[in-house]
Description:
This protein is an alpha/beta fold and 231 residues long.
Amino acid sequence: MNENKMILVGHSDGGVAVAMDLASELLGINQYDIVKNVDRPNCIISDRYSATHFFENEYDFNENIALPVQFGVHHSNVKYLLYHFFKNKHGVSQSRYVDVIHPQTYFGPSSEQAGGILIEPMALVSSMCQLGFGITIKRSASVGHHAVLGDFVNINPGAVLSGFVNIGEGTEIGTGVSVSNNVTIGKRCLIGAGSVVTRDIPDGVIAYGNPCKVIRENERWKGIELEPDFK
């Protein structure tokens, strides 16, 4: 295995560049196999992503799949599909996904993570937290003590989660969101930027405002069924 090379699974946003910079700085990675525009056939993600396809002939998995892997995509639904594509078709296990945690981030030593997490500079993960697989925590976000974050959760810049918060799998927390103590936010939700969440939010919705209220169904997850190992 070339320890200075990594598979970077990306898409069409800035996540590829961020993951590349952090991996270069923290892991000494200087070569990348960048796999972009990956999708599974017949899955509706959204109008933005439905036309993307995976071109297997452009990438030799047999030679490269032993390399460490990291996501360069910040949309929870796309990241979920990417992971299951690599797992189901090419046998890429969670153990292949490396953690990239910037040294300017505080990560409580009593907290635990399942792997494949990407944490940008100036973020804070407090004590006794449980972080699932494939989580992204962006710049200056704060996760309070005893928080539980499900797999593929995305926390955007400046968001503040208080103590004993529970965030369900695949949920995205927008920029500058504030979540009060003991609040539970369900799976596959999208919480709009600047929202103040003081009460529990059910599964599969878009919610925003101060106080945060349910607006409609989160269509980013339309047509995507959660597989048993991530339910």
